[in-house]
TrEMBL record, chains A, B:
Purpose of the protein: Guanylyltransferase that catalyzes the activation of (2S)-2-phospholactate (2-PL) as (2S)-lactyl-2-diphospho-5'-guanosine, via the condensation of 2-PL with GTP. It is involved in the biosynthesis of coenzyme F420, a hydride carrier cofactor.
Coiled coil spans: none
Keywords in alphabetical order: GTP-binding, Nucleotide-binding, Nucleotidyltransferase, Transferase
Organism (species): Haloplanus litoreus
This protein's name: 2-phospho-L-lactate guanylyltransferase
Entry EC no(s): 2.7.7.68
Pfam families: CofC (PF01983)
Length: 211, 211
């Protein structure tokens, strides 16, 4: 299955500004993108990066992944690639906890319904598999609610995917805790190499930077 | 399977203090506990509430659920009930997004390994199924990491459960967004009746209280 992976290549991860400089945010965002693409390849799917600007994916196995530059808003860029007869997957690029197994549960849900949706924390949508030709995405606002309504309005049945790994898109400093705890790929390695570690205090765990 | 459900009955949900008065926190915590117990009954398991003080569960089907008062620290109270030959489940009581299906994935994982663990956001552990007689819990600090280490040290194999619904224990104001979006039980209904609704602004979705 073709899986679109939208990527903000111009100013990625601005909400991590309190912790990471601009070049670090770019490197970390790229590490997460590489984790997502690797997991897709490992599960036998065909990722296509839909980026706001050219992206250098590296010179390893990911070199062959196609990158399409599309400067239109995210939802427009994605919707222009829907409407065909084959199922299309969409997976956000900032999943620092992604595993092939988690992608497998999204794909399995997509095989059982016209639209499968993996919610992101805070009302977002982090993954979809769309088999209904009239369904369109809208990533603005409370997108998970909008996607459920959109599916209903075109008569598509929906399956929600219950996955912490897919729900955890990494936007804010507290999300880095999850990457350090549960990430298994380059993003977690990048954070550790940059000196981040868990800080154990009262309440939930935080992060420290020691380097 | 017997499933222990620890419940802080004395001063529940203190981190929701900015949004809820003490009596509201108690009512909301009880609604979440009732959701967890109902989902356990629906999946055919035998919940036992292990509470710091007596709890009135209501006069419906949940009336028959046993409540044991144990004033010892949480981990001690739980560990005194482990070590037998039958698998024992442990599920935290503040899962406002719980569904029978989510519990099913924890139980399925428990059937495949000596210890199944459902991580909570921020390093916590929200659910376990323990089949190894020497495994003990420790809910202090980064408990998910400690539980993985504890399993290794007694030679127990582990399976991690990837569930957003089980990962979302409700402790802080931002967690209420998830209950409003994805909760299907009494906790979500309680929040709505108390006047909470989603607030859509920049970035992630927040909450408003209108009543």
């Amino acid at each position: 299955m073709q899986v679109l992976v939208p990527f903000e290549a111009t100013r990625p991860k601005t909400r991590l500004d309190p912790l990471l400089a601009a070049d670090e945010r770019a490197a970390f965002a790229r590490a997460m993108l590489r984790d997502v693409l690797s997991a897709l390849l490992e599960t036998g799917h065909d990722p296509v990066v839909v980026a706001t600007a050219p992206v250098d994916l590296g010179d390893d196995v990911l070199e062959g992944v196609p990158v399409t530059v599309d400067e239109r808003p995210l939802s427009t860029a994605v919707n222009s690639r829907l409407g065909g007869t084959d199922p299309v997957g969409i997976l956000v690029s900032d999943l620092g906890l992604v595993t092939p197994r988690a992608i497998g549960s999204l794909v399995a849900a997509g095989a059982e319904a016209d639209v499968a949706v993996a919610p992101g924390r805070g009302g977002g949508t982090n993954g979809l598999v769309v088999s209904h030709p009239e369904f369109r995405v809208d990533f603005h606002g409370v997108s998970i609610r909008d996607h459920l309504n959109a599916a209903e309005s075109v008569g598509a049945d929906v399956r929600l995917v219950d996955s912490m790994r897919l729900a955890t898109d990494v936007d804010e400093p507290s999300d880095l805790v999850e990457v350090l705890l549960h990430g298994e790929g380059e993003a977690a390695a990048w954070l550790r190499a940059a000196g981040f570690e868990l800080a154990v205090g009262d309440g939930r765990v935080g992060i420290d930077r020691t380097v």
